[in-house]
Amino acid sequence: MPQLQTYKERPVVLLTNDDGPPSASSPNIFSFCKLLQSRLGWDIKVVIPDTQKSWVGKAYAISDVISASYFYPLEPEGLTGEITNKSRPLKDGETMEWILLSGTPATCTNIALHNLYPGEIDLVVSGPNHGRNSSTAFALSSGTLGAALAGALSVPLPGPSTGIPSLHVEHIPCIALSYGVVTRPVTSRVMELATDAAVDVCERLFGDWGYDEDHEKGRHLVQIYSVNIPLVESDLQKDKRKTAWTNMWRNSYGRLFKATTLTQTEYDPAQFHRQEGALPSQNQPQNNQIPPNVSNSSTAGPGALPTPYTTSPSSPNNEISGDNQLRFHFAPNMKPLLAPSLESLPVGSDAWAFAKGYIGVTPLRAQFAGPIEGGYGFGSEEKGGKVAGSLWE
């Protein structure tokens, strides 16, 4: 098909993420945003969580009042810049105004589409996440995917105030981008190549968006593309890059938590989950009115192999703490999911492509996927040809 339709001559793109503003746990969004602007000429609207929000999926905090602040990132990496409670004109040296919300990634998407920029957005891009989101175990937990899913479910959207009909009555195109850490430290050259590849993929998809054949809705635009880019320098070189269409590997995770004697006040996630080669956490944007990002734990998401503790917070033999209250902290062992053998991975899956060093592009629907064949009827009826709509007997 021709490129996606847009309201204006220049595409207006909502950029969100789950890692928050530029910091140790969010090293990708600033350079990616700049390249989208400079290379593609897109008009980028950034609406992101004000702190790290990994592993929250497509959650909405319905009991919270969501507050907005305004961040004016400065060159060269967006690690500094003023944060204000009210929007203001740009000052010398500032090129963009970003909106930070005290909500989840999904909340950022919905508020941006319906409250902040109604009738303006042509495409939603979530990421780039600092960590892969290949396979169901990661994707169903991912705030990056959650923000994209929220976009696909946030329709119908209003048209522009000028009275032009809405382009997004049944869908809005969404892309979820994830960078998968393979080795450390992650060099600046690898990040540069990954960002270059990510922008190329976005440009290619925007210019030739695919269709989904749905027995309920018929032929319609793909709702979401999940893109996973392995951070391997040799595979990301321009003349060696390979990109594959993929489906999602169906896997699972085991225990995610360990017992701890520490209270929430005593527990410092950065001490136990700091990732080698991460940006200095003290460089994150902050001011006196808005508390700094208290979580700079890159490994809180599915981005890396577990980092050994220097001082273990876990209780020996899972004993409870001194005040007799049982407590747990997030301490996943992701190595089985991050380093499976290539032979164990289904050919064509996103995890297979990642293991091969390919960029994987997985088309998704915003729905719980049912069985492809079978699954309807009891075990004793498995040969009875049951289909959706069959009544229990």
From TrEMBL:
Transmembrane segments: none
GO cellular component: P-body
Coiled-coil residue spans: none
Pfam families, per database record: SurE (PF01975)
GO molecular function list: hydrolase activity
Cited InterPro entries: SurE-like_Pase/nucleotidase (IPR002828), SurE-like_sf (IPR036523), TTL (IPR027746)
Residue ranges of domain Survival protein SurE-like phosphatase/nucleotidase in the record: 13-254
Bias kind Low complexity: ranges: 280-298, 306-316
Protein name: 5'/3'-nucleotidase SurE
Organism: Kwoniella pini CBS 10737
